[in-house]
Write a structure and sequence with these properties.
Order of helices and strands: EEEEEEEEEEEEEEEEEEEEEEEEHHEEH
Structural class: mainly beta
Shape: globular
Radius of gyration: 23 Å
Bound molecules: fe (ii) ion
CATH class of the largest domain: Mainly Beta
Largest sheet: 9 strands, antiparallel
CATH topology of the largest domain: Jelly Rolls
Number of helices: 3
CATH architecture of the largest domain: Sandwich
Amino acid sequence: MTDDLAYNAGLGNAFETEALPGALPRGQNSPRKVPYGLFTEQINGTGFTVHRAENQRTWMYRLRPQILDRAYRERPVGRFVADFSEAVQSPQVLRFRPRSMPATPTDFLAGLTTWAGAGGPSFRKGAAIHLYACNADMVDTAFCNIDGDLLLVPERGRLHVRTELGRLNVGPGEIVVLPRGIRFQVLLPDGAARGYVAELFDGHFQLPERGPVGANGLADARHFLFPVADFEDDPRPWTVVVRQGGRLWEVEAPACPFDVVAWHGNYAPFKYDLDRFNSLGSVSFDHADPSILTVLTSPMDTRGRNAIDVAVFHGRWDVAEHTFRPPFFHRNSAIEFNGVVRSPSATGPWQPGAFSWTPYLAPHGVSNRTYEDVVTASNAEADAPERLPDSSLWIQFESTYLLGVMPWAFDDPDRDGAYLESFRDYRPHAKVP
Ligand code: FE2
């Protein structure tokens, strides 16, 4: 998307940025006299003593400190939750039509609905998947999620995300990561917005190892864009909403929290254009595992178990000989949440906004019709290179956690009952004596 904001680039970099010349202290982090008389505030995104390569923290230089003399009030959470004791563990594969847009003014925060989850923020283990659908700006309100890092995948409508560390424009085809504790506000330049959200209760999103792929390919660190310092001196009352342990608390702040004049560090929000992803795949035979399409991951350990993997399926050449090209029938030791962002078809079961759910180790694969088309094609047709269109873009969240689906999903009027019909009546091809 066109974006006239300035950014710094490079996932894993340490950034320096200042909106006023000389605002960033040089030579030390916390001088007694800060340029322009700014307040100094550090935010840590990791424990102090974690390995240096994993340590994340940012120093902010701002008009006012964020400590407040006001009392917090609790507010209703609706269906945006972090308690999964009611979540349903079920082997049922599911598909949903695009989520209905709200009929009344609804901002991003009010438009969040939790879809699935496991674990929770208290012990810093687990992950969640949410959906959002909204049609109103957050007005003089900032949101601070203590519980987890949020990864937003817009499917419809652009988001103008204002954060303490600067602004990001994010549209369909892009993703944005908002680390826990960083205050942000979502404005809607297109008036309506919808998308998918992954939440990590532990650790942070990072690039996957490339292994034998080598030094290049997949997502490149330089294509991840970070905001530059951008502040406003707005001494009007603002509301700060804090989510902690799944509860929502709000407090009146005497001024806009987006007042950071300069910052340096590596703990910050960032965005990525999924069309920058350099897809790799088969050039000989057989269908590669979807891990080859991982954009970002969040390892739980060193044994290939990840809290959330984010994979992208977009336009690319599909090349393989004497091979069943679509995904083979399989059962995966992870849950799979597939969301359509772009589609050549504005209608039909896989239109933008439609999404599907495959539980842990649940058998899944292509429909009876696709199977029939593939196995009855001529060798010439089946072996011809195929260009998957750029008008198609899907994301997949995979998790090793047994995410349970929230109970309201099963009664959702947008649950697509026709999904199961596509797996009915596979014509037997086997000829056995
Ligand atoms: Fe799968």
